[in-house]
Amino acid sequence: MSSTDAIPDHDPFAVFETWFAQARTTEPNDPNAMALATATPDGHPSVRMVLLKGHGPDGFVFYTNFQSRKGIELAANGHVALLFHWKSLRRQIRIEGVISEVTAAEADAYFASRHRESQLGSAASDQSRPLASRDVYIDRVAALRAQYPTGDVPRPAHWSGYRVRPDAIEFWQDREFRLHERRRFVRIGETADWTSTMLYP
Fold this sequence. Notes:
With about 200 residues, this protein is of the alpha+beta class. It contains 5 helices and 9 strands, in the order αββββαββαααβββ. Strands 1, 2, 3, 4, 5, 6, 7, 8 and 9 form a 9-stranded antiparallel sheet that branches. It is elongated. The two termini are about 15 Å apart.
């Protein structure tokens, strides 16, 4: 394996941007899909797929219902992990960090950018709570559609976003015969600097 094959050892955000740009051209669906792992205060884990809606040196952004199971877990324990897996590229990226809420202006702007039907669906949903039948949910969507016949639907107060500020980012590249390549970046304290270490696969 030549040195040109190696995962770069500097600026994990630049590596992420390069890999993400490639995934957007090769993944058949949702290259921005990522697994979000949370845990309850007593350590019970749960994981689900969410969509990345913004990223940069300040973190990785996703949106959700704060009253959902993940919203309740995030309110109690702000330490999370993210996982991107791009099968088309045979790559994955693991991210560990702590959440903070996006601003109301950011949440408003993203909610307004969504398709109107998605706005209605989010506003009508008591996410993660018991539902007697799908018809109940569809009826709630229809009622909101009648209440707001034109224009955008107001963003519910309990619907917003989180930004994950990473403390560690790990890149994994598949290689033949399972001689995979891994590089882990760890933030140095509260600075913008990182250490970088190769790991055995």
